[in-house]
Amino acid sequence: MTLTFHWFLPTNGDSRDIVGGGHGMPAGTAGRARPASVAYLGQIARTAEQLGFVGALTPAGAWCEDAWLSTAMLTEVTERLKFLVAFRPGLLAPTLAAQMASTFQRLSRGRLLLNVVTGGESHEQRAYGDFLDKDARYARADEFLHIVRALWRGETVDHTGTHLRVEQARLHRLPDPTPPVYFGGSSAAALPVAVRHSDVYLTWGEPPALVAEKLHRVRSLAAAAGRELRFGIRLHVIARDTADQAWAQARRLLDGIAEADIQAVQNGLRRSESEGQRRMLDLHGGSRDGLEIAPNLWAGVGLVRGGAGTALVGSHTEIADRIAEYHALGIDEFILSGYPHLEEAYWFGEGVLPILHERGLWRHPDGQPAAEHVDVPFAGQPVP
């Protein structure tokens, strides 16, 4: 089995600097110069498709454009790329969500992946009319996914639960194929739901030892439930021809950010209810010092951005080495991003993917060669 790589669609805007947002934080903390237009997002999507990424994650939240609508429009400017649509179960009725997914699959020719996000911040959920607490949101997600999966199997569903109720629910047209479900979450309330319903369990980019510990815990729970999961990881990436160039870019991303802005973001993120967000904050402690928390793993992004806060930083070979290290732990899918997302897709796709191809860890989904050597006529010939 070769590795699967996904890219990211910045539907909150893009920049040459880190763009904030996520976990209730407003976008644009460190700049947002490129609006999330269909034209620009289409550039990123087509680039990801050409380079060999399988899909692209699209976030959900008040700070970004709606994921369902954005990706539906982008299916018309791409051919193969799949869209990992983040959505919050509490904001859609399960039968409607199952129907939307089925429609998306038919009209896109099977290019939908689903990322279940229960909602980590109660204040943001309340803005959408959802007043459940965090544990109750996971319990509702459990009921929601039970209903949706039954509908996708073609069953007629009667369900009366603590949070959801449907009668004689059924789909007249089933999705083909059934969309894979991606699910993260590190809390005690999240893990049992994840192992019951996810096809791919996602973790944020923690040091390998912490990732190994989490994967062991999830595997044990999945085995007890009679299930076997795939695993994915969410990371930013800064890959360059040399390590010095990559680390110079990492430093540049933070150099222009005032300490007051960092502290404002950190104060907001410390109020987060998300266990995953707490683990991200623990990696850097709000300080610019000691941000390389493991070889080539940099926690600087998390100083000014909620959610995934770590980046792989280094030469193309070093990044390939770190990916192989995570793969040895059991990670098969990598969801990557970088600022700006158009240019960083090329750095990774043209620099790191060919190395992984040479090592037998990756192949282009379209069967294209990882890189082509072109002989230029008369190159190097002496001038008469």
Please tell me about this protein's structure.
With 384 residues, the chain is α/β, with parallel strands linked by helices. The mean pLDDT is 92. The longest helix is centred in the middle third of the chain and has 19 residues, at 134-152. It is 40% helix and 16% strand. The strands form 2 sheets. It has an 8-stranded parallel barrel, surrounded by 8 helices. Strands 5-6 form a two-stranded antiparallel ribbon. The protein contains 13 helices and 13 strands. Strand 7 (181-183), helix 6 and strand 8 (200-204) form a beta-alpha-beta unit. Helix 1 (38-51) runs parallel beside helix 12 (341-351), helix 3 packs across helix 5 and helix 6 (190-197) packs across helix 7 (208-224). It is globular, with a radius of gyration of 21 Å.
Features:
single chain; 384 residues; alpha/beta; eight-stranded parallel β-barrel; two-stranded antiparallel ribbon; 13 helices
Quick overview:
This protein has 384 residues and is α/β, with parallel strands linked by helices.
